[in-house]
Q: What sequence folds into this?
């Protein structure tokens, strides 16, 4: 199934900014993070179709997934 | 500090801090080993200074009875990573209640001054009254203990923060420096003066790479007292790092606490600047006085766009492995590094660029550099200017000041210079006073008289209960964006339990990046205290001390005349909701009313004990 994946900030380094990607049916967000080998210590925010979600969220055909690093200011 | 116990929670009075009180009117000095009243005193910073400020009824920040308290935290100067903090406390010229009383305030900064200060043998320096003549103060280590000297500073008058530090460096070896700029010298018309703290990098490179205790106008208070600079002269007291502290330090660098702040080259997040990219996904990067437009304009200041034209180098404070500084320099034609411009941290960058309509990295860097050299708090400066620009946008027929509008770099630069020179009290006295004088307060982005940081208030109603400004004293700024929490229970818990603990770092001498999400009530801190001082203290005791200190600050605000109505966000947030921000609305009047009720129900009974 097709998921539109957008990466933010350092997650783009060596990967991509945004693209449609094919995954086996019913992947969890965590599965996609694993496939992309995103660094766990930076992992912060998951948005599915613009709404905060967890890494256990099961994705559906055509979902828009945004993966963001954690933010801290100063 | 002197320790006659290993149990600071049960027996704090057996621990003594070395305090020197200087009467600036006559030069008299008193040294004392003061027994600690409680664990907050032991930890230090505002945990101690606010107890002393609470004893005084101050009606005007610029009065002889208002002290300037300079102190450190228990772990300042220790081998615990980030242990470099210096704290400046007093009643603030800029933050105050509507009845006209100044709020108690502290400001914290890194650099190496704090460690040097601690290594002189002194833990706290209290300045009473004011000097008739401009002075600087030398704190030095001697065989008989710390010594304090007052010196004429006529030759430093009119110099920038960096120039003062450079001038003093020529005279004092083995020393570090805290200096105000012209803004602090012009304290009558500039309430947002900051204190610049020298770094090793600055003293070696001669470039203006300092750190700041910026918030609350402590540099202006220092200027009022006619103290232009402090010199801390001592040998470096760097002990061998114990195995326990080594483990903690590795955890600080590699653990969750600071990983996102590390340089990109080390697999880190690239410093606080990286917040730009994350917040932009929600259209929550402040633009044109906190009115994000739902477009791509903030992307111009994304790192990937800036590094095409400028050299970016990651650097760190003394002995800190976090390396959070992103120093921006011109790039020469051959690609080599050119003139150093400024450090890009999220707050000063946003508030002196995108939020005032500036989208050119070079212009942003020049404004940051200018403000730093005048010694002004970048947050208060940027937000007050953005208010003025917003006013002019709304009143093109009758603009104020020089008529500057969003994005007009030359005119904005002129405003910064005039403010630093003390020629523009309209800006220098902050957004609360300016907006009240113009009778248009709804879009003045301050809370309780202190300008908010670069997180949209729509994302952080916790600002309201921050006791020392913006995000540094209430860590709820990521609760909605980062954690996705938009329900009342999460916000009540965040404000009244978890997120207030961020203030603990402003007691103990550590930087927030030591462990920003957990605070100081952790095993890491427990291990450091055991290893460094043989103190046996539990994480629970530390957390309790931090909570008491926070509540003391809240109680002090109420005592200084703040009404409950002043615990509120800028009115524009609810009167004209910004539909461009792609996050749930948690600042509707209905939500906020419920939040206020619940938060006060929890805090108020505890405030009675303060």
A:
């Amino acid at each position: 199934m097709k998921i539109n994946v957008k990466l933010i900030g350092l997650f783009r380094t060596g990967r991509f900014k945004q693209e449609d990607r094919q995954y086996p049916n019913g992947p969890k967000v965590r599965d996609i993070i694993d496939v992309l080998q995103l660094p766990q210590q930076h992992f912060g925010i998951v948005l599915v179709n613009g709404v905060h979600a967890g890494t256990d969220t099961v994705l559906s055909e055509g979902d828009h997934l945004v993966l963001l690093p954690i933010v801290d200011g100063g | 500090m002197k320790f006659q116990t290993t149990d600071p929670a049960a027996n704090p009075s057996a621990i003594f801090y070395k305090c020197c009180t200087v009467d600036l009117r006559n030069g008299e000095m008193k040294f004392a080993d003061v027994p600690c009243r409680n664990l907050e005193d032991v930890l230090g910073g505002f945990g101690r200074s606010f107890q002393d400020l609470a004893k005084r009824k101050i009606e005007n920040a610029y009065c002889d009875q208002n002290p300037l308290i300079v102190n450190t935290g228990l772990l300042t100067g220790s081998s615990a990573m980030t242990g470099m903090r210096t704290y400046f406390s007093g009643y603030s010229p800029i933050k105050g209640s509507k009845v006209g009383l100044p709020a108690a305030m502290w400001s914290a900064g890194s650099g190496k001054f704090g460690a040097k200060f601690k290594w002189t043998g002194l833990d706290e320096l209290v300045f009473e009254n004011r000097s008739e003549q401009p002075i600087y103060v030398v704190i030095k280590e001697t065989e008989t203990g710390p010594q304090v000297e007052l010196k004429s500073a006529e030759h430093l008058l009119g110099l920038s923060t960096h120039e003062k530090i450079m001038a003093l460096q020529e005279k004092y070896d083995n020393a570090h420096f805290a200096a105000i700029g012209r803004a602090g010298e012009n304290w009558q018309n500039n309430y947002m003066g900051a204190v610049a703290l020298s770094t090793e990098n600055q003293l070696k490179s001669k470039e203006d790479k300092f750190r700041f205790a910026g918030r609350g106008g402590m540099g202006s208070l220092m200027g009022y007292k006619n103290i232009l600079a402090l010199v801390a002269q001592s040998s470096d007291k760097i002990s061998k790092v114990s195995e326990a502290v080594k483990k903690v330090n590795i955890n600080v660098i590699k653990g969750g606490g600071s990983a996102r702040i590390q340089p990109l080259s080390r697999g880190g997040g690239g410093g606080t600047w990286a917040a730009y990219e994350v917040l932009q996904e929600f259209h929550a990067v402040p633009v044109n006085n906190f009115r994000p437009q739902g477009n791509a304009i903030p992307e111009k200041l994304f790192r990937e766009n800036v590094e095409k034209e400028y050299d970016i180098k990651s650097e760190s404070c003394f002995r800190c492995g976090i390396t959070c500084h992103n120093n921006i320099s011109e790039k020469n034609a051959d690609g080599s590094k050119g003139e150093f411009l400024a450090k890009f941290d999220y707050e000063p960058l946003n508030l002196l660029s995108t939020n005032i309509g500036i989208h050119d990295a070079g212009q942003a860097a020049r404004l940051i550099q200018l403000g730093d050299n005048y010694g002004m708090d970048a947050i208060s400066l940027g937000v007050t200017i953005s208010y003025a620009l917003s006013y002019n946008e709304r009143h093109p027929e009758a603009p104020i000041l020089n008529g500057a509008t969003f994005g007009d770099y030359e005119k904005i630069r002129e405003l910064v210079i005039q403010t630093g020179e003390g020629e523009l009290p309209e800006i220098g006295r902050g957004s609360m006073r300016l907006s009240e004088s113009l009778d248009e307060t709804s879009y003045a982005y301050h809370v309780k008289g202190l300008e908010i940081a670069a997180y949209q208030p729509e994302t952080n109603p916790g600002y309201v209960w921050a006791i020392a400004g913006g995000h540094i004293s209430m860590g709820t700024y990521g609760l909605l964006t980062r954690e996705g929490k938009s329900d009342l229970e999460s916000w009540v818990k965040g404000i009244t339990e978890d997120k207030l603990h961020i203030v603990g770092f402003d007691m103990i001498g550590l930087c927030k990046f030591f462990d920003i999400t957990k605070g100081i009530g952790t095993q890491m801190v427990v291990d450091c205290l055991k290893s460094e001082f043989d103190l046996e203290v539990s994480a629970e005791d530390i957390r309790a001390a931090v909570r008491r200190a926070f509540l003391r600050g809240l109680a002090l605000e109420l005592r200084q005349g703040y009404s409950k109505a002043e615990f509120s966000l800028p009115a524009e947030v609810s009167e004209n909701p910004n539909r461009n921000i792609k996050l749930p609305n948690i600042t509707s009047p209905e939500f906020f009313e419920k939040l206020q009720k619940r938060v006060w129900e929890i805090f108020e009974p505890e405030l009675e004990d303060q």
Strands of chain A lie at 2-7, 18-22, 43-48, 51-53, 64-69. Helices of chain A lie at 29-36. Residues 29-36 of chain A form the longest helix (8 residues).
